[in-house]
């Protein structure tokens, strides 16, 4: 599937999910009413935590790059995370920011290291969140529908097994060794070089990334809970340890910034425990609003970076002796 077709698919999924949700599942007026009565203080606190979480995630990325003996400024990574948030919020994919971070980092290091550390950075955060969800499940399963319990077990269990195989390295290299070099994880192909960066960070750096991910995901769960408090969803903090992994994984479904998919998943996850579907949808829209506001801040950072680059290129041109001779 080419890029244009994939972007069209993302638009169709987002619009289709929203249309179906507001047509068949929730009442738009009730959802808008819940948003109109939202507690702004909770939303502002969630926004502040989300902004701080980008700095925390940048530090996780910093640890992984150090594991490869790559010296990249921490503040440079913070800026790239904010820029990435802008692209994730406004491009037709939640992972556009990851692509942008990797592309920008190629100015500081080789492409395989840039792509590999971005992938590992994302993966460690998701694995910790899935593990948290499984750890909380025994305490909350009694309040959940059986299908939701098995969904979390399947998603989290499958994700953790897959993550363990990726980090182990040898098995997947052996499994793909017979494939052509373009798609093999062994040898000297492009994918193999990226995978070498993923597995080459070292267990000390990966363990540090997991530790940072615990802090980040606790903040992420708190952000989601604050958005729920803002619209009065009536669900305790503990249940967000279950809901947050499913909301995060839903971001992997092609969509425009998660819109439509996130709202549908939120209604499906919170309704079985007694939350109103309209309010659950308002909760998801609040989360989307927080990420969108942070993306706007990232756009401001990106604009400054572009202006600085433009001024720098002009300064270099004026300082070029050859340029003076031509004049």
Tally of strands: 0
Structural class category: mainly alpha
Distance between the termini: 51 Å
What string, H for helix and E for strand, traces the elements in order?
A: HHHHHHHHHHHHHH
Q: Your description of this structure?
A:
The protein has 327 residues and is an all-alpha fold. The protein has one domain (32-311). Helices cover 79% and strands 0% of the residues. It is built from 14 helices and no strands. The chain has helices at residues 3-25, 28-36, 40-67, 74-90, 96-105, 111-140, 146-168, 170-176, 190-200, 203-231, 240-250, 261-270, 277-319, 321-326. α3 (40-67) packs across α4, α3 crosses α13 (277-319) and α5 (96-105) packs antiparallel against α6. It is globular.
Keywords:
327 residues; mainly alpha
Topology:
Layout: H1 3-25, H2 28-36, H3 40-67, H4 74-90, H5 96-105, H6 111-140, H7 146-168, H8 170-176, H9 190-200, H10 203-231, H11 240-250, H12 261-270, H13 277-319, H14 321-326
Helix pairs in contact: 1-12, 2-13, 3-4, 3-6, 3-10, 3-13, 4-5, 4-13, 5-6, 6-7, 6-9, 6-10, 6-11, 10-13, 11-12, 12-13
